[in-house]
Write a structure and sequence with these properties.
Layout (H helix, E strand, L loop, with lengths): L32 E6 L2 E9 L2 E4 H6 L14 H6 L1 H15 L10 E3 L4 E3 L7 E5 L2 H11 L14 E4 L5 E3 L4 E2 L2 E5 L5 E5 L3 E2 L2 E7 L18 E8 L2 E2 H11 L9 E3 L4 E2 L7 E2 L15 H6 L1 E2 L1 E8 L1 H6 L4 E7 L7 H8 L11 E3 L14 H4 L5 E2 L5 E2 L7 E8 L7 E11 L7
Parallel strand pairs: 6-22, 8-16, 9-26
Antiparallel strand pairs: 1-2, 1-5, 2-3, 3-4, 6-7, 10-11, 12-15, 13-14, 13-22, 14-16, 14-17, 18-19, 20-21, 20-25, 23-24, 25-26
């Protein structure tokens, strides 16, 4: 679990001037990690500071960062080294970037010149369903008297999704073909007519446990390397048709977009908050005093849309969802512990999706399937949306906020829906 230390000091300032800019996602109190490349130089690890990227490979070569894992072309070695390694790196980078340290602009790359990559090769991807409000709203369509799955209040429900379909923010998504049943009972095949987003938190795993070795609630927090944003693109018509026997399959494997920046668990220590009460109380293997007092995170999350017409008119993105991650019924630690209950070997670089981060308020509905329960979305320019249309871009953002702490952001997770390809002859 994360501990507050000198790197969180609200008085800290950096010699990188833009780290003090109003509203920046990346003050010196954040220091998220990513993998980037530039013209003429391949992928390597970096740290966001203001509107710049600190090149960790260059910092290591200069003797300013000690861990050789920071010089790799992926965050996988650092994830494998465990939370102690990421905490030590954070301390070194904070000392390097603070205002009273010698300025080293030669170690910086402007973000505008950085080409972002996946943080690591995703080894496994599991997606959870941890929002009470999301489950209750959509479940009421199936059975108004019993909207929640029987197990929901007892464990964090999840399924194994497609690791090879995970893509970094900015990559386009092609409208998929699929099969579903229409309202008149006919079975149809063709391009989906119900493309949706799901606003989720990405949870990246640190370290390994051997096959057959469970992860306890006491150990679970230290298995969380950090957090990012995740768009679990959802093909609703296909998903509804295929789910009753075995759960999501082609309705979910089309693409998953993740933000490039990982906000480390260490950076989020000031934003830990009490987990929501559970009724009935969780079984002992999913409970701990720390989880009850500090297992949730106070992170405001938004999803916005830009349509082709809005883009042509220069209109600002329209906020579809404004929600709070801290209200999720199940915490990230319970997801980790439950995932490994049967001895499943969670590996460094594994990815967990939190599930749709929907809250109780109507504005906190975190997908169009929920928003559309009360009718299509009316956009300021007169357009309406029931589902995502070709050319629409979906943009996720998030910001951790707490009294007495400098707010920190997660960057963006973007994706544009392209038209379906012509079905091969």
């Amino acid at each position: 679990m994360a501990v507050r230390d000198a790197t969180h000091d609200p008085a800290l300032r950096s010699w990188v001037a833009t780290a003090q800019a109003s509203g920046t996602d990346f003050p010196i109190q954040n220091l998220p990690l990513a993998v980037f490349a530039t013209t003429g130089a391949g992928p390597r690890c970096g740290v966001a500071i203001g509107d710049q990227v600190l090149d960790l490979r260059a910092a290591h070569a200069a003797g300013l960062v000690s861990n050789a894992a920071a010089a790799a072309d992926s965050l996988a070695p650092l994830m494998a080294a465990g939370r102690g390694a990421s905490a030590a790196l954070r301390a070194e980078v904070s000392a390097l970037l603070r205002a009273d340290a010698p300025a080293r602009p030669d170690l910086l790359v402007p973000m505008a010149q950085a080409r972002m990559h996946l943080p690591c090769s995703v080894r496994n991807f599991s997606d959870f369903m941890a929002s009470y409000d999301h489950c209750a709203r959509l479940g009421a369509r199936r059975d108004p008297n019993n909207p929640l799955p029987p197990a929901f209040r007892h464990l964090p429900v999840a399924y194994h999704s497609r690791a090879s379909s995970v893509r970094v923010s900015g990559e386009d998504v092609v409208r998929p073909h699929g099969q579903w049943q229409r309202q008149d009972g006919t079975v149809h095949f063709g391009p989906t007519e119900a493309m949706d987003y799901e606003l989720e938190m990405a949870v990246w795993i640190a370290g390994d446990n051997a096959l057959g070795e469970p992860v306890t609630m006491a150990a679970a927090p230290d298995r969380i390397f950090g957090y990012g944003l995740l768009n679990d693109w959802s093909v609703r018509d296909v998903q509804r048709w295929e789910m009753p026997p075995l759960g999501p399959f082609l309705g979910k494997s089309v693409s998953t977009s993740v933000s490039p920046w990982i906000v480390t668990a260490e950076a989020l220590a000031p934003f830990e908050t009490a987990a929501p009460p559970q009724d009935p109380p969780a079984l002992p293997y999913l409970d701990s005093p720390w989880n009850r007092s500090s297992g949730a995170l106070s992170v405001r999350m938004t999803a916005a849309i830009v349509t082709p017409r809005m883009r042509a008119e220069g209109a600002a993105p329209f906020i579809l969802t404004d929600t709070q991650f801290g209200a999720m019924y199940w915490t990230a630690a319970t997801m980790v512990a439950h995932h490994a209950t049967n001895g499943c070997n969670l590996l460094a670089g594994d990815l967990l999706g939190s599930g749709t981060v929907s809250g109780h308020e109507d504005t906190a509905r975190a997908c169009l399937a929920e928003i559309g329960l009360t009718g299509p979305v009316a956009l300021p320019n007169g357009e309406t949306r029931r589902w995502i249309q070709d050319g629409d871009e979906i943009i996720f953002r998030a910001r951790a906020e707490a009294p007495g702490a400098v707010p920190i952001g997660f960057g963006e997770c973007r994706g544009t829906l392209l038209p379906a390809i012509a079905w091969p002859a």
